Every structure is written in structure tokens, then in C-alpha cells.
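Note to self: keep these together.
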Amino acid sequence: MESLLAEHERLSKSGTFSKSLDDIQKTIDLLVNARETIAADPEATSLNLAKLQNPVKSSLEDLHKDLEEVRKHQTKYAKLVDKKFKDKTLPQMEYEALTSQPALINRAIAMHLLREGQFSVASTFLTEATKNQSLGDMSDDLTMSGTEQDLGLDSLKSESLRKQFANMYHILHEMKNERNLLPAIEWAREKSDELDKRGSNLEFDLGKLQFVWLYVGKQAQSGRPNFVEGRRQALAYARQELCHCRPRYLKELQKLFGAIAYCPNLRQSPYRRIFLNDDAWGELAGSFTKEFCALLGLSAESPLYIAATAGAIALPHFSKLQVIMKDKRTEWTTLHEIPVEVPLPPSYRFHSIFVCPVSKEQATDENPPMMMPCGHVVASESLERLSKGNRFKCPYCPNESHPRDAMKIYM
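Structure:
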């Protein structure tokens, strides 16, 4: 992989075509000058063309050499790519879950484009996708958020969603590039009640970082640090904007105000991680994106991106499985479950898995986990076998209960 990366770097440097463009411009200048000379003295046309022949030929040869160098690197890079990523036949499966759901795929693509800020591309895609098929034609058993359902009706209804994502990207731009938290703080105040219902700390975290920015960041950016002025501005901001946070965030506020005693030697203070944290802006931008999408009824990450990434991770395992099944002449018999464990990252594990301690089988929608009054959990089928419709003793404790007292657990 290192050789591939090194060749990619060489290709990037040689593939700028800057020298080739200079040679092309040189040839154009020669031709333009010759045209002007011939126009001024038509009788000397033959002589001027003869003089032009060698310079143009030399310029074109230089251009050919430039392109030959780029072509050489491209050929070498292509060979390394072919060697590293050998062409393999993709695993074929009789059951394709999404083959019969083109509308769902189109909706996921359109939502991904909107989430990425590609609004014009999303609009074009929606227009073309709805020519022959309505994105809203979904089977009744599919449950989706109201926002996504609106997106599936027509391209006009996606305008409000587009504006909201445009607002999100504007706020993120101000936060990351301009170090301006005010648009984000204003948005958090407008959504304060909804954020509180979610138990979110975003509004306070934004105010906290604004305090830190006024204290040290703004002064450092000016090139003439004045911590006295920074402290004054930070304290004025805290008195005006953070007082209402005191009941819930008293300890955090105490840390902010306690740092005043260490000014200007914050680097040696116990509060250096709060005031000298270069990752704070990126982390808070991630939290803002997560909360913004959550209030729209969307996940923080694009479902299309997650599905594609998880599929790329799982593909080698499925390819190996297909080879083994072919050698052993076996078939994949489970329709809704994969026959092998795919090691996905922890962030890609969205649903808990319950294995019944009695039957040792994984719970499904048809055989959900049931919790007995004593707190122990078994699968529904195991519960029926143990009770036979009557009171029964828990297999893990002395408590007895009736099957109707058991509660279904949702994962």
C-alpha cells in the first residue's frame, strides 16, 4: 500500500499540467504573432511561415515530452492499482432485499445529497427520479420519518428541507472557518425547549466555548494578546448569557470562573484543557450537526454512507463465504440473517442482539425477548414452552409468574 500511496503522490505532483499549459500558451503566442506579422506584410507570408516552422515544432515536442511524463506515471499507477485491487467477482445472492424497492434507494440517494449540501444535484436527481416513478410510492409496512416521507412526495416539498440544511452548513462554516459561534448560539436558543427535552447540553457548550473564545482565543487571533480585556469581555458575556445555566451547570461555571485566578498563566493551570483545547471547535461542530439532524428526525450520519461503508467492510467476508459454500456445495438458508459474523466498528452497531439463555437462539421479530416480573428475560417461544399457559417458575430464580405478566422488550 505504501508504494501505491507514493506513486499517487508522484502522479499528483506531475499531473498538474502547469508546464504543459505553458508550452501550449507559448505555441499560441507564436501563432498569434505570426498572424499579425503576415497581416501587416502579406508579401512575406512564405518567409514568416518558414521562420515559424522550427519554433512551433520545438514547442510541440516540449508539449509531447510533458504529456509523456504524465502518461508514464499514469500507466505505472494504473498497474499498481490493478495489482493491489485485483478484480474479483462480486458475491451473487438469490435474495436481494432492495431490488424491489427502487423508490427507497432513490430516496436515500436524494437525502444523502441534501445532507451533503449538494442542493442543485439533489434537485436534478429528484426531478429525473420522479419522471417515471413517484418517490412516495412505498409499501405500507415501511416506516420512515415524516421529513423523509415529505421528501418522497415531490421535489417541491424538499425545498424546506433544503433550506434547513443550507442553514446548517452556514452555521458550520461560521463556526469552523470564522470562529463565529453567534449563529449557532442563536439557533440553539430558538430550539432550547426541544434540546432540553432531549437532555442536550449543546446550548451550554456553545456558551462555554464562546466564553473561552472571548477569554483567550479572540485576543490571541488579534496578534496582540490582552488577557485583561479578554477577561473583561468573557465575564460580561457570562453575566449576561450564562447566569440562567447556574442551577444545572454550577460545577462547569465554577471551573470557568476559577481559571481567572491563573490568568495569564493558563497553560500551567488545572484548566488548560478547557481553555487551550484545539479540538474543542471540531468536537462542538460534530455535536451541533448531531443535534440539528436529530431535531429533523434524522441520524447524525448519512444512512447511505453508513450502508455503503458497512457493505464495503462486509464484502470480503461474503466473497470468502461464497467460495467456501461453492467448495462444500452448500447454500445460504437463512433469509433475514447473515451466516457469518461481520466485524463492524462499534459506531455501526445500532441494535442490541438478544440470545435466549434457555434455547440459545437469537431473538427475532417473530420470537421477541420477554421480561418476567422477576426481571429475567427469555425468548417468547421459550416462555411458552416453560409455562404451557400456566404459572411457572423462573429458570434462574425461585420466583413464579404467569406468562401474561411478562412484558415484550424492544431493542
